[in-house]
Amino acid sequence: MVTEDLPEEGELVVCTVTNVKNYGAFVSLDEYEGREGFIHIAEVASGWVKYIRDYVREGQKVVCKVLRVDPRKGYVDLSLKQVNEHQKREKIREWKNELKARKLLEVVAERLGKDMDWCWDTFADELVATYGSLYNAFEQCAIDRDSLEEDGFSGEWVPVFVDVAVENIVPPFVHVRGVLEVTSPEPDGVLHVKNALKEAEKVENDRVRVEIKSLGSPKYMIKITAEDYRTAEEELKKAYERAKKAMGTHGTVEFHRKEKK
Fold first, then answer.
1. What are the strands, taking DSSP E only, across the chain?
2. How far is CA 88 from CA 14, 48, 64, 79, 235, in A?
3. 9, 107, 21, 91: which is closest to 56 by C-alpha?
4. How far apart are CA 209 and CA 201, in angstroms?
5. How far apart are the first and last CA of the chain?
6. How many CB atoms lie under 10 A from the CB of residue 120?
7. How far apart are CA 232 and CA 155, in angstroms?
8. Could you state, in order of their start, the residue ranges of all structural domains in the chain?
9. Angle formed by the axes of helices 134-143 and 157-168, nearest 10°
10. Rounded distance between C-alpha atoms, residue 27 and residue 20, angstroms
11. For residues 82 and 107, what is the distance between their CA atoms, to the nearest angstrom?
12. What is the pLDDT at residue 259?
């Protein structure tokens, strides 16, 4: 039976070699359950291939480029030689990340007391559409715990998904944020507010970035980018203290984790 679950021409796919013949190799497509493909000997390597088993063998994982797809018959013609080493490494990394993401989704389902079909129907498909892949969704939550809410997602699953992401994904960096409410009743209060915000942005750690954006006076969003949450939270506190010290007796500086409604 032919399904719509087929790769597209030009796509890179992870395959497992299942049967090697003198004229080419048959493979299973790891990302497309039940689908098979074929690598003609002319697409195994550049130049003349005398012994195909010098290049591929049963059980081997390979990354191939999709040359042609016949949706009616389900045929997929592949090329091994048209994939360079960089493409191969990146595709394997993405594939492993997606395997991990699906395992993490199982953890989310278990904690929610739901099955995987419910997760996919309720939010996972939409996450893939929004972030490009399930792993990207987990990674974005590990980077910024408020990402899902800011992108319009809601429901009982959101905090569980975020917790699983933070517990299991080591992101390249993280974000934490809050709101500074800065006011000064003095005639030159605008200058005092600007100075307080300027001081808040000063940071000694060159691996930390502080960004401040107006939400409409007197509220300002402050975002810290750092290597980990502990560092980010510490720098957020320091930024608040710098702003408060700079304001002194000229006004007030208050910090809120989220903007008050």
1. 12-21, 24-29, 36-40, 61-70, 75-79, 174-183, 209-216, 219-226, 252-256
2. 9, 22, 8, 12, 39
3. 21
4. 8
5. 54
6. 16
7. 27
8. 12-83, 86-168, 174-256
9. 80
10. 9
11. 37
12. 55
- Asked if 29 contacts 37 with a C-beta cutoff of 8 angstroms, the reply is yes
Residues of the chain with pLDDT under 70: 1-4, 259-261
Task: Please say whether the structural domain 12-83 has been given the CATH code 2.40.50.140.
Answer: yes
Single-letter amino acid code for the residue at 146: D
pLDDT at res. 47: 87
> What tokens appear for 188 in the block?
């030159």
Architecture of domain 174-256 in this structure: 2-Layer Sandwich (3.30)
The HSE-up count of residue 225 (CA atoms within 13 Å, CB side) is 9
Domains 86-168 and 174-256 share a fold: no
Q: 């590990």: which residue's tokens?
A: 142
Would you state the CATH architecture of domain 86-168? Orthogonal Bundle (1.10)
Q: State the DSSP string of 66-135.
A: EEEEETTTTEEEEESTT--HHHHHHHHHHHHHHHHHHHHHHHHHHHHT--HHHHIIIIIHHHHHHHSSHH
pLDDT of residue 64: 97
Tell if the pTM clears 0.90, that is, is over it: no
**Interaxial angle between packed helices 157-168 and 85-112, expressed in degrees from 0 to 180 and rounded to the nearest 10:** 130
Q: Which residues pair with 220 in a beta bridge?
A: 180, 214
Nearest CA to 183 out of 87, 84, 250 is that of: 250
